[in-house]
Amino acid sequence: AQKVTQAQTEISVVEKEDVTLDCVYETRDTTYYLFWYKQPPSGELVFLIRRNSFDEQNEISGRYSWNFQKSTSSFNFTITASQVVDSAVYFCALSSGSARQLTFGSGTQLTVLP
Amino acid sequence: KAGVTQTPRYLIKTRGQQVTLSCSPISGHRSVSWYQQTPGQGLQFLFEYFSETQRNKGNFPGRFSGRQFSNSRSEMNVSTLELGDSALYLCASSLGTVLNTEAFFGQGTRLTVV
Fold first, then answer.
1. Is the CB of residue A13 less than 8 Å from the CB of residue B80?
2. Cβ within 8 Å, pair B107-A43
3. pLDDT at B101
4. Confidence band of B100 (pLDDT split at 50, 70, 90)
5. Given an 8 Å threshold on Cβ–Cβ distance, is A107 in contact with B90?
6. For all residues of chain B together, what is the average pLDDT?
7. Cβ separation A101–B58 shorter than 8 A
8. Is B98 within 8 Å of A103 when comparing Cβ atoms?
9. Considering CB atoms only, which of A44, A95, A101 is closest to B106?
10. What would the mean pLDDT of B78-86 be, rounded to a whole number?
11. d(C-alpha B85, C-alpha B12), whole Å
12. Which residues is B89 bridged to in the sheet?
């Protein structure tokens, strides 16, 4: 069985602050993929990033960065200089050979205040 | 390139009725997955179809069924609706299996059972 835990239910920050969303995962597979999705109020899940289990390099895309650490089974997401438009629910997800489906965490509601 | 299209966007049904939801994937995508999102249970996997074959099924009762057509469009059917079936139903399409390719989601169908 696989599991994704997002311990932070809600986070509120003031615009321009940096914010880190935590994600801890569990899987017995050695090959797996980790994802982050953003869900704005309109409802659709917007793909942000995919990482495979063999690539632990951190990644930066504009104001977004991701820190993947196998040793702690974590895949954290940082938004630098947050903006009001970043307000959304963010989901971390996991897929692996044995499960063949996306397993989502419970999501973190991020509110960026002006 | 058109995204994932789900119809209808909103539905209100009565307990005991049945409902069919439709999903048109991104052109060229052969995999369609369905997810149920509720405040209490979060995002849960329903099933995945690839080339008209169901490849994987989540832990849902037999009242939930689906199919995929030769043009990759998919339908999901829920029979004998219960109040607990009220949820946002999200469809995702991907080129290959969700194991290693990103899934693109539609805006969902919000089903309310009264």
1. no
2. yes
3. 74
4. low
5. no
6. 93
7. yes
8. no
9. A44
10. 97
11. 11
12. B36, B109
Q: In chain B, what residues touch A95 (CB-CB under 8 Å)?
A: 98-100
Q: Which helix (H) or strand (E) holds B21?
A: strand B19-24
Taking an 8 Å cut-off on Cβ atoms, the answer to whether A91 and B103 are in contact is no
Cα–Cα–Cα angle for A104, A49, B31, rounded to 5 degrees: 65
Residue B13 belongs to what H/E stretch? strand B10-13
pLDDT tens, position by position, B10-23: 999 999 999 999 99
Looking at residue B9, what DSSP letter applies?
S
* pLDDT tens digits, A8-65: 999 999 999 999 999 999 999 998 999 999 999 888 899 999 898 988 888 888 999 9
Q: What residues of A are in contact with residue B105 (Cβ under 8 Å)?
A: 37, 44-47
Average pLDDT of chain A to the nearest whole number? 93
Q: Give the integer Cα–Cα distance in Å for B66 and B17.
A: 16
Give me the percent of chain B exceeding a pLDDT of 70.
96
Quote the minimal CA–CA distance from A42 to chain B in Å. 7
